[in-house]
């Protein structure tokens, strides 16, 4: 029997995948992480939120954890916050914002749907 997904999870899934417009490979390359190496003990590596996005991108909706849902909401919030009332040209020139967005899998220069 198929597991039922709530409408809220469906909506968050869609919003997350609209916000994240980089592939897991592109995000790993951006973060400078080798995907086949396990994270060792100690503090998290580069951009823990970005690494959580990579993990989520490899999952099916039915495999999401509560932690995954929190990460997905955080990513949607970051992308909304950083792109709200901001032109594409400004994002291209604002290196801090662009890097923050790319660290969570959103390349503001790629998004063809970005119409402000």
User: Major sheet: size, sense and barrel closure?
Assistant: none
Task: Count all strands and give the number.
Answer: 0
Structural class computed from helices and strand pairing:
mainly alpha
Secondary structure tally, helices: 6
What would the principal axes of the Cα set say about the shape? globular
Mean pLDDT: 84
Strand content: under 5%
End-to-end Cα distance: 44 Å
Low-confidence stretches: 39-44
Number of domains: 1
What is Rg?
15 Å
| Helix residue percentage | 40-55%
Order of helices and strands: HHHHHH
Protein name: DUF3140 domain-containing protein
Pfam family, one: DUF3140
InterPro entries: DUF3140
Organism: Phytoactinopolyspora halotolerans
Helices, strands, pairings?
Elements: H1 7-19, H2 24-31, H3 48-57, H4 66-83, H5 88-93, H6 95-102
Helix pairs in contact: 1-4, 2-3, 3-4
């Amino acid at each position: 029997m198929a597991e039922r997904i709530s409408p809220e999870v469906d909506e968050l899934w869609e919003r997350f995948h609209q916000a994240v417009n980089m592939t897991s490979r592109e995000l790993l390359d951006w973060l400078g992480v080798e995907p086949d190496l396990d994270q060792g003990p100690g503090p998290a590596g580069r951009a823990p939120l970005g690494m959580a996005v990579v993990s989520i991108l490899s999952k099916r909706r039915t495999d999401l954890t509560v932690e995954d849902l929190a990460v997905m909401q955080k990513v949607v919030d970051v992308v909304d916050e950083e792109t709200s009332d901001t032109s594409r040209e400004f994002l291209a020139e604002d290196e801090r914002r662009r890097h923050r967005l790319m660290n969570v899998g959103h390349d503001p220069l790629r998004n063809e749907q970005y119409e402000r």
